[in-house]
Structure formats: structure tokens, C-alpha cells
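Researcher: We're teaching a course module on how sequence relates to structure. For the next exercise, students receive a sequence and then see the predicted structure as C-alpha cells, so they can try to spot secondary structure elements on their own. Here is the exercise chain.
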Amino acid sequence: MPCFYWAAFQMSVGEGGPFFSMLTQAATDRWVIWSRATRLFNAYVYIGLKLYDLLAGKRSIGHSRLLGKGQVLERFPEICQEGLKAGVLYYDGQFFDARMVLALMLTAIEHGAMAANHVGVVSFVKERGRVAGAVVEDRLTGDQWSIRARGVINATGPFVDQIRRLDLSDSEPILQT
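Model: And here is the predicted structure for the students to work with:
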């Protein structure tokens, strides 16, 4: 089901590492354009929205558009009106990541993979200086075993640095708190 999103972001320069610094700089650039040439900003946003729609092609679930102040107030009567000039309407889809992970896991099993739950990485198996698998531990029973793999992907989110240090103990952290 398509969802309507209204988002406002406030970030300080340097928060959240290079990704958020890039977003902060982009927001600053947009503010400079907005404050000096409102008509250009509206065109800039409109072109960006239409480009987004164009790239989506037939897969689009709704067309993006600019909303006037009145249209925004109709949809969000409680929104702060101070400084409100316009809004943006765009469509996005909700997706349930747990279902996606389950579908991906079941597909992998159909193709010969093995899956385990409540398992943590204890160390890496290395061959000729390359990671060739991992020693894992069942967090419920304490049992450990080796898993061999042609490729290992560290997709551990906030634990990425903890896992990296199992391979490179002196590595600099990627994530910053």
C-alpha cells in the first residue's frame, strides 16, 4: 500500500559520520538556493521529483508533485504554519524486512544453503590469508562449529566494527557514536 511521507530533518554538521555530513551539506546547499531564489528551488525540487518518477518508470506506485501551502494544511492541519511555504507529495512502499529476510533464507536453503538462528561469530576461518568461513557458536547451547564459504559478508549493522576486529584487531572503527 503506498504511503505518504512528510519528513523534516535537522542535523548538526559532523553528526553521524560522512554520510550525515553529506546530507547536512546538501541541506545547506538547498537552503542557500531557497533563501536566494525561491522560484529556482521549486523548479529544482520539481525536476528532482519528476526525475525520481521517470527512473521508477512503470514500477512507480504514484506520481510525485509539489503541494501548495493550502494543500499541505488540508492534509496536516496540525502542522506548524510558521515559515510553511509548500510541501512535497511522493509515494513509497512499505516493506517488511523480516519477511524479506525469511524469503531470502528459504530461497537460499532451496539452493543448498544451510541456515541457523541464535548463532554468533566467534572467529574467522582463514586460508592463504583470506577469510574462508567462520567459527560460530550457538548462543542457546554453547555448541561451536565451522562454516566454510566462498565469500563472507559482514552485514551486522551496528556490530560491524566488532566483527571486523575479529579479522583485523587493530582496524579503525567505521561507525562512530
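Model: If you want an answer key for the exercise: The chain has a mean pLDDT of 78. Strands lie at 2-4, 65-68, 86-89, 91-93, 119-127, 130-138, 144-148.
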